Amino acid sequence: MEKNVKAEILVVDDHSLVLEGICKIVNKMPDVTVADAVTSGKRAAELIEERDYDVYILDISIPDVSGFDLITQIRELNDQARIIVNTMHEEIWMVNRLAQCGVNAVILKASAPTELVAAIRSVLRGEPYTCPRFASISQKLSSGLADWQPKDAPTRREHDVLEAVAKGMNTHEIAALLKISENTVETFRKRLISKFGAKNAIDMVVKAVAQGWIKLD
């Protein structure tokens, strides 16, 4: 990065007060600036398509667009993008999902402002960062779930089928929802059961939830 050129950041959080707080912290840093700050996932998706930012600070729980979908979108456009997730969630599904989706840093919203500053500085140096609380939770869970990792990560389409199965939808309903044939649904189902090393569809869903691939509402 050229001297005296500030790193530009996109901040996404659906809570206005949280967004304002992040912007205040970031704009006090001499070498970075908030280029855009939005509360809408849809608007964030538009901005991500329009330009490339030096750092992305995202909340995961955004009502209109999943934060995980935004991460996927960013990675498809730039696999070297520096992504920081700022979340309030400490649940097992969230910890494992974040550990698997390849973000550069994770901090909890309950963390001190210094944690956000440290995360930004770390990712700009090309180094990963997790706040102490999240790192502790992740470490405790990793040993217990080490043997449960799927052989291969589910593809996006397989993930769609996985979510539908978890909601209790049958093959016909999934085929209609995803606009694919019932045979294709069954093929995806069999692949998923194999990838998760599951005995059946129910066992597959249990393991997928435990690993953070899906969340049961």
Automatic annotation (TrEMBL):
Name this protein carries in UniProt: DNA-binding response regulator
Domain Response regulatory as annotated: residue spans: 8-124
Organism, as annotated: Bacteroides stercorirosoris
Taxonomic placement: Bacteria, Pseudomonadati, Bacteroidota, Bacteroidia, Bacteroidales
GO biological process: phosphorelay signal transduction system; regulation of DNA-templated transcription
Domain of life: Bacteria
Domain (HTH luxR-type) ranges: 147-212
Keywords: DNA-binding, Phosphoprotein, Transcription, Transcription regulation
Molecular-function annotations in GO: DNA binding
4-aspartylphosphate carried by residues: 59
